[in-house]
Specification:
Helices cover 40% and strands 25% of the residues. It has 303 residues and is of the alpha+beta class. Among the domains are: 90-163, no CATH class; 174-302, Distorted Sandwich (Glucose Permease (Domain IIA)). The radius of gyration is 47 Å and the shape is rod-shaped. The N and C termini lie far apart (129 Å).
Length: 303
């Protein structure tokens, strides 16, 4: 059988001799097959290398993210630890202040180095601290301490005491008491829904507690009258005024001037008719008359 060849002619230059190269067919097939295998191998290697680079890149990215998360966790852990220490310190401070004035307080937070602080304890401690801050800023602490509300009392007791009308609206002698009495105009028995406090014409009438003025006008036998709502169902009335220093809808603070003593309305002489009502039912105002402006001023100066 004759062998088959592929003949290649190679010219050295345009005028040079031709060189003939004969390559058997089966050699050419071997070369082409080897070349194909080589290309396939290189392609596989390149593909594997590319996938390896992608995996390395992904691994490096995940490692970076892990380090960042670790750093963030460490920072958060440090912040949480500092917060626990801070809260424990504030809770201890609140307890010390409460103990100083004999107030009832929540249990002191445990040492953060031995026991993990529970959320309920943290909330209780912060509530206690904020309550003390509120009572101090609002003046409730001053009122509570002035009234002797210390031993076995709470900040809530101070707040309630601060909302009660416990300041004398005018300083003077009580000339008409609360309850049954003889009507000075007709000599018959009548119920007196407040107290009459002797004062001179033009003497300032003060708000006994914070509240909103709901009425400031002429009111029958009361004459010129003022009504203040102190919330919690407590209202106060002031009768026989000469003039007003406030208007309806205005918010007043303890010690603000409401008006001036006069004898308007059904009055036998200059005085202040003063009432305290709880849910519109008159109660004896005398039990609320515990403080004067001089008392508050003296306490503030002494503190």
């Amino acid at each position: 059988m004759r062998k088959r060849f592929y003949i290649f002619f190679v010219a050295r230059d345009e005028h040079g001799q031709l060189r003939k190269i004969s390559i058997p067919v089966h050699y050419l097939y071997v070369i082409l097959t080897g070349a194909a295998i080589g290309i396939a191998g290189l392609t596989g290697i390149a593909s594997s290398y590319t996938r390896m680079l992608q995996k390395v890149s992904t691994f490096n990215q995940l490692r970076t993210e892990k380090e960042e998360l670790k750093d963030r966790y460490t920072r958060l852990e440090q912040v949480a630890k500092e917060r626990d220490i801070q809260v424990a310190s504030l809770g201890s401070l609140a307890s010390e202040v409460s103990a100083l004035y004999g107030l009832k307080s929540d249990p002191v937070l445990m040492n953060t180095s031995t026991v993990q602080i529970e959320d309920a304890q943290v909330t209780s401690s912060m509530d206690q601290l904020y309550a003390l801050k509120h009572t101090a800023m609002s003046g409730a602490a001053t009122v509570g301490i002035s009234l002797g509300l210390t031993r076995n009392s709470t900040t809530a007791d101070w707040v309630r005491a601060n909302s009660a009308p416990n300041l004398w609206p005018v300083e003077g002698q009580i000339t008409g008491s609360f309850g049954e009495r003889i009507d000075p105009f007709n000599g018959e028995g009548a119920f007196h829904s407040g107290v009459d406090i002797s004062a001179v014409v033009g003497q300032p009438v003060l708000a006994p507690a914070d509240g909103t003025v709901t009425f400031a006008d002429f009111l029958g036998g009361y004459g010129r009258a003022v009504v203040i709502d102190h919330t919690h169902g407590i209202t106060t009335r002031y009768g026989h005024l000469a003039s007003f220093a406030i208007a309806a809808g205005q918010f007043v603070h303890r010690g603000d001037v409401l008006g001036y003593v006069g004898l308007s309305g059904r009055s036998t002489g200059p005085h202040l008719h003063y009432e305290v009502r709880i849910n519109e039912t008159p109660v004896n105002p005398y039990k609320y008359l515990r403080m004067t402006m001089a008392h508050i001023g003296g306490f503030a100066a002494g503190s």
